[in-house]
Amino acid sequence: MTDKALDGAPDGVLRTRREGAVLVLSHNNVAARNALSPAFYAAVTQALVDAVADPTIGAVVLTGEGGHFCAGGDLRQLAKRRELPIAERRAKLEGLHDLIRAVRDCPKPVIAAVEGAAAGAGLSLALACDMLVAAKNAVFSVAYVKVGLTPDGGATAFLAEFVSRQVLTELCLTGERISGERMHQLGPVNRLSEPGQALADAVALAAQVASGPAWTMARIKELCRAAPRTTLEQQLELEAQCMVRAQETAESREGIGAFLEKRAPDYTKLRGAH
């Protein structure tokens, strides 16, 4: 296992380490409960680019140091933006949105491990991940309304995949705190953990998928992302396109061969092969 900090300093904004084929990215802004920053956007985006290029990495876990996932935007910095022209404010916001896109579009599975708070854009970041593991006592909140702001980072889009418009509106207008247990009931949380165990459980889940067929899993991610926004006919077309391509890959040759030969498939040897 290796552990290092990114951001050019020993206590950099992002700590990284390997757990076998799993890359763990840990937000390291503990004093501000891991509030977001442009340095964090850049560090995570680059780490994901590097992970995609590294065939020894099969999955990524995103978490936070110090017992909190992410408290959202840095309100001190946001307060200063009122003095900027609207175009500059928009450009700064796009840094967050580019991070959300990078997480969503990463071809390798990205799993959030949430302890403590995931509020505002921190909630958006957790929901951008492919899967979410949360402690039972974790606290989620669409907190923007509490400080006179509107949601960003795709929070309303992600939540709308799980809840009705009425529930979505309630969550956004009240900014109420939502427990990990309730988020599990609503749908976004894949697995509930005992307090302090979310990261270990997320790494275990990541290890489970990290040895899978990389090209195939990337196509499955694309299908899952598209499904909530397509008609049945559109989704059938996307599935057909993927299936006919999958049938000719080295991964399907290995998977079908292993099944017929009654052995476990070895997809890791095929990383980079279609």
List keywords for this structure.
2-enoyl-CoA Hydratase, Chain A, domain 1; 274 residues; globular; Lyase 2-enoyl-coa Hydratase, Chain  A, domain 2; alpha/beta; three-stranded mixed beta sheet; seven-stranded mixed beta sheet; 2 domains; 11 helices
Structure description:
By secondary structure, the chain is of the alpha/beta class. It has helices spanning 38-53, 75-80, 86-105, 121-128, 155-160, 165-174, 180-186, 198-210, 214-226, 232-246, 250-260, and strands at residues 3-6, 14-19, 22-27, 59-64, 110-114, 117-119, 131-135, 139-141, 178-179, 191-193. The two termini are 29 Å apart. It has two domains: 3-210, 2-enoyl-CoA Hydratase, Chain A, domain 1 (Alpha-Beta Complex); 214-270, Lyase 2-enoyl-coa Hydratase, Chain  A, domain 2 (Orthogonal Bundle). The radius of gyration is 19 Å and the shape is globular. The strands form two sheets. Strands 1-2-3-4-5-7-10 form a seven-stranded mixed β-sheet, sandwiched between helices.
Summary of the model, kept short:
The mean pLDDT is 93. The protein is an alpha/beta fold and 274 residues long.
List the helices and strands and how they pair.
Layout: E1 3-6, E2 14-19, E3 22-27, H1 38-53, E4 59-64, H2 75-80, H3 86-105, E5 110-114, E6 117-119, H4 121-128, E7 131-135, E8 139-141, H5 155-160, H6 165-174, E9 178-179, H7 180-186, E10 191-193, H8 198-210, H9 214-226, H10 232-246, H11 250-260
Parallel strand pairs: 3-4, 4-5, 5-7, 6-8, 7-10
Antiparallel strand pairs: 1-2, 2-3, 8-9
